[in-house]
Design goal:
The chain is mostly helical. Helices cover 82% and strands 0% of the residues. The protein is elongated and about 130 Å long.
Length: 140
């Protein structure tokens, strides 16, 4: 009888130890995944040169777009949809801004070329006019 109790206690301790190790292993795995996410977010922030506020907004949008989104399930679908539409509109505005900057750069480049050609033409005209109509003579 006593041996049976000791054996049950040993089995119970082994099960508890296995369960504890399993929990610790799961916690370590979750911690490791969280660290990987943090590293990914920081590297993306640096690579794309965006502010922390923008990183937070993008991260929030990513959570909202998750298929099994239990974290934000209490949000009304309308407010979620409105938020996503607002974020999409902001993205469109940024893309439009980039297009405008590129277009302005092309126009500025063209204008600088026109201005420099005009300067060169005026300089040649000034040199020619200052020569009093003298022609170049060749020594052949």
């Amino acid at each position: 009888m006593m041996m049976e109790m000791i054996r049950k206690m040993i089995i119970k301790r082994k099960k508890e130890k296995k369960l504890k190790m399993k929990r610790e292993n799961m916690m370590w795995k979750e911690y490791s995944q969280a660290r990987q996410i943090i590293v990914e977010i920081n590297s993306s922030k640096i690579a794309y040169n965006i502010s922390m506020d923008r990183v937070a907004a993008l991260l929030f949008v990513a959570f909202l777009r998750m298929p099994d989104n239990n974290v934000f399930s209490n949000l009304k679908k309308d407010s979620r949809k409105a938020f996503l539409e607002k974020m999409e509109e902001e993205r469109r505005a940024r893309v439009e801004g980039v297009k405008k900057v590129r277009a302005a750069s092309i126009i500025q480049t063209h204008w600088r070329g026109v201005r420099e050609r005009k300067k060169a033409k005026d300089e040649l005209r000034r040199v020619f006019d200052s020569s009093n109509g003298d022609t170049l003579e060749r020594d052949w």
